[in-house]
Amino acid sequence: MKNTIVLFGLLLTSLLTYGQTLKSPNSEHELNFKLNEAGTPFYSLNYKGKEIIEESQLGLELVDDDTSLMNGFEIKEISDTIFDETWEPVWGEQSEIRNHYNELVITLEQPKEERHIIIRFRLFDEGLGFRYEFPQQKNLVYFVIKEEHTEFAMTGDHTAFWIPGDYDSQEYDYTISKLSEISGLFDDALTGNASQEQFAETGVQTSLMMKSKDGIYINLHEAALKEYSLMNLNLDESSLTFKSWLTPDAVGNKGYLQAPAVSPWRTVMVSDDATDILASNMTLNLNEPNALGDTSWIKPIKYMGVWWEMITGKSTWNYTDELPSVKLGETDYSKTIPNGKHAANTEHVKKYIDFASKHGFDALLVEGWNEGWEDWFGNSKDFVFDFVTPYPDFDVEEIHDYAKSKNIEMMMHHETSGAIRNYERHLDTAYQFMNKYGYTSVKSGYVGDIIPRGERHYGQWAINHYLYAVKKAADYKIMVNAHEAVRPTGLRRTYPNLIGNESARGTEFQAFGGSKPNHVTILPFTRLIGGPMDYTPGIFEMDISKLNPNNNSHVNATIANQLALYVTMYSPLQMAADLPEHYEQFMDAFQFIKDIAIDWDESHYLEAEPGEYITVARKAKDSSSWFLGNVNGTTPRKTKVDLDFLEKGKTYEATIYADAKDAHYKTNPQAYKISTKKVTSRSTLKLKSAAGGGFAMSIIEK
Amino acid sequence: MKNTIVLFGLLLTSLLTYGQTLKSPNSEHELNFKLNEAGTPFYSLNYKGKEIIEESQLGLELVDDDTSLMNGFEIKEISDTIFDETWEPVWGEQSEIRNHYNELVITLEQPKEERHIIIRFRLFDEGLGFRYEFPQQKNLVYFVIKEEHTEFAMTGDHTAFWIPGDYDSQEYDYTISKLSEISGLFDDALTGNASQEQFAETGVQTSLMMKSKDGIYINLHEAALKEYSLMNLNLDESSLTFKSWLTPDAVGNKGYLQAPAVSPWRTVMVSDDATDILASNMTLNLNEPNALGDTSWIKPIKYMGVWWEMITGKSTWNYTDELPSVKLGETDYSKTIPNGKHAANTEHVKKYIDFASKHGFDALLVEGWNEGWEDWFGNSKDFVFDFVTPYPDFDVEEIHDYAKSKNIEMMMHHETSGAIRNYERHLDTAYQFMNKYGYTSVKSGYVGDIIPRGERHYGQWAINHYLYAVKKAADYKIMVNAHEAVRPTGLRRTYPNLIGNESARGTEFQAFGGSKPNHVTILPFTRLIGGPMDYTPGIFEMDISKLNPNNNSHVNATIANQLALYVTMYSPLQMAADLPEHYEQFMDAFQFIKDIAIDWDESHYLEAEPGEYITVARKAKDSSSWFLGNVNGTTPRKTKVDLDFLEKGKTYEATIYADAKDAHYKTNPQAYKISTKKVTSRSTLKLKSAAGGGFAMSIIEK
After folding, report:
1. The Glycosyl-hydrolase 97 C-terminal oligomerisation domain covers which part of the protein (chains A, B) (predicted)?
2. Of A137, A381, A461, which is closest to B258 when you measure between CB atoms?
């Protein structure tokens, strides 16, 4: 790891100064901190001289504590630091990441209660991160959070790209509106989900993307969420101030802390260039370095899956339709009538293995392989799966051997149905089973309300569990891709075996009625600020009724758009989600998926506008190859791409997968054209993207 | 196993009969069942021609179900059976137990909902057991209980021996009052506890002991409580009817069931002789037979403990007083200042081992051996113990080797602080640690509110956990003695490694201010109906200020009473709880504890009156020796004991440990006299018991 660390420590002790200032390394951001006369802490943020966050309160309200950590503070100590270091992630959008910030650490004391806390501010060139710290001390040992009172006072009625605040789900389409319009549009924004719970019609989730009428982009999120509950935001409509709203547990408390402890970082990214938001590494930089030691067993994965055919309803996860319910260990499946639609059977899986192997994939996911799917959903069932007992038609060993002979790894699936205690009871044996049969990665799921009942997906209890499962997986050298878990906040720096999460509205919703065609132009500004998303793109057959006549969903994207996602929707896990027979119809387009790299030396966000378009160029790791992608919203658009990121003096061949002239996500999604072109660093390409379309490009050195 | 099974099956199908009758084998009890016109089920119970339970409703109210399982029933099928079998428990009060009942099975159908349930009644010579059954069927699959509506309509304002209804604790002194007086006395009956939650001032726990003014004894309880929540009783004062009140989970639901399922048995014992209640094996007989297979590793245990000195405050569980809190794995105890009062240190433990070994004990319990005791209590701490890391002054291996050389087994201690998830996460490694260091039994504790927060000690969630821990312990051939867990209900028949529970107000409360002197004359009628209690008797020094000047508690018992408890308070685990130095002051009395058997061929309850006295005689297993015990309440009393249970023609020597003439639990508790006497089966002994006193007797064949 190449490190360049420059540290200057300056200690300023001032009991009489109430205003503190910090600037970013490039001086464009300025943070101001103060205490008012009641000893309440406030901060504000300027960008290029303009106020972006007006004076906003900080503090925490505690249970059974009249004063709480809200006011009565005095500044006890101040220090500031400059930090500049480069580090290498195990996998990522870049092979090197610079962590460069100016830090201000303020120790606040409550003289009456004889206790103190710390607020630590870090200003990066792209924005601010800050958190609360609770040092070990006599008068602050165990405390329970009633609510955190961190505010983000907006300076105007910005445009926001938002989903409803919720304790259990992020799987909503985005709504674009003014802040003042949120409450009025809230009910329309709510779509059904297996597990969901809102708290206010002015509540929204993070990361929250906004754009001011002056064209300033603002993003609010959190980083390093662990041992704490998730922060939603509640808008105070009268003041246009967002207030932190933590996730309660079963009895309404919002966090149990034992000092020494820290809160997650609250992040505010600001730029007049939207691509700065996408390119920011702030979330990762605010997380702790790798804690796992040896990471040689962690690798990005390109995979296919016996999955989409169940999502569309063409096949089933469950083996039989005969039983109203099952009891694991008591139900004898060999005595039931198979429904004939169970996709996870040995012969069918082998066909997928053949296809995946032939086309150079790394792994195959199979869902529905294990006993318990007949009543897994919606029953609040505790002992729902044991994660080790296959159905009668799924021969684990034979499949493993066959896959191995074809150079394919099997990807495990652990659907937990939200029954966390049950999962933890089986976790060691489940991971041992994986080791025994050569599964190196697992997709886990938490569909449905959490058990213990009353807990939420985004509460401290569940958040503790998700990390517990990841850390234990590392003991077994297993990589984890957790769906329906909490959205990531950069913990993948510390635990690089956390290679994926869903935790947002993914491709499956295209088969559940469809998602908005510009959804993929918003997600990188919202969900992906915290980390990669296993979006599972690559759908070539948009008319779902062709897979299942009872499902009239339509995938609101063109094929070119689907190819572009492998570039624009960053993930070290990339799935070619469709059925082999659909790829076989379009093998020339499929070639891009076969060629796309999944780990990167460099990433350049060329242009971006949330809700409208994103264009990204990435250089494959340890390779001279580049890949480009553009995803487009609902308005057809022309774009001009300068290839000045290519290495000077080299000649490349670009293969361009673009929308055909008359392509349209709804009426003509499968129309694309492929062309090749010689390019250099001095080339400029002009391309057109259809509504819900885009383009993808592989650029190979010649 | 000697079995005598006589089965007669009679099938009576009657769609038109609404009244059904069942009699006990000795015909003294009569059960009547009927449906009223609304199809609501009722039962009533007579004893020797007198009504004991007036017409009482049955049924269950379900969440999200308008009809519930309350009315609209029709009788679909009726069958009755006679059952008579003898079986042998692995350990117990008797080497053989007869299970003899008449059974009535009624299938009730709701034609409109097209679903059915079963109510199964079993009448024994000592009373009634009945339960609900939910067979597998199409229209009853998953259901959530809002409340069970089982009623027990009393025929008069009986005297009751009760403790407040509570979701988390049974550690109350008993109150003796009329039913109508309960609500008025409720607040006085409440003493503080680390975890407690009441639901109504008319709520009481089971087993509930009562005596009618006609001198009929009535006991209400439950048997085979698993996969269900605990039943308290709520008194309807206007009708003097007790109604079942289940324990809610964090969101207020009272049970999650998946058919096929059964409720626990609700039991009603009735007799005009109080000793019949104590002698009843109904609870065990209603439980499933041994499920563990080989039980050769399960043995009763006579033990001592490094425990009482901490309970009294003479020593501490924790190692240091220096830290406000600890974080396991982060806190370096070797760098802290030991408080000099940590009893669980190697040298001190060895002294106990020496004493226990010298006097023929099986095992030594040591509490406070492991890291984490500095902040274990009252902090709702999740990762509170890891169960495998000893304090710096407790050398596990050295102590194990030393104990082994002295023929003593170490008894493990797992205090969980109610943090159930934490305990389960560590359970396998904790049990493996025990196997590694030769611990064959564990005392577990659940002091403090349950985590997950919102769950209760007596809710379905925790009840599932307690059994999970016992079953997993059996996999490791470990015996479990669970304190603060749910009170037992006979599961020890199915899982004989569950050798003990506390789950009531035990001896420790004598050091927390004292318990009522007649407490031990009530417990066998209440707490022990469900199973043995690790009461940990044998205190010889009643003035606790002699151990800890800051603790003015007084043990409200005489030494003779403490000795008697080894006979009257049945348990396969028997602790000599006091400090060795106190036994050394009274070695002649201590001899009884050394001699007492802990497993029995026969048990005879000679005389008993709840709140006043109990006298029991037991024959040691595979031995001709007998042991007697009498515990007395607050009124000095004379008793006459016929020894006609002794084997005819044999001569025995009885050693009698009795209260001295002027003994009194408060003013003169240590005054006792020991005498010996030759006795035969024709002997009668006259003895006097002091207030809070008693006598103990060993009768050895000569």
Report:
1. 599-699
2. A381
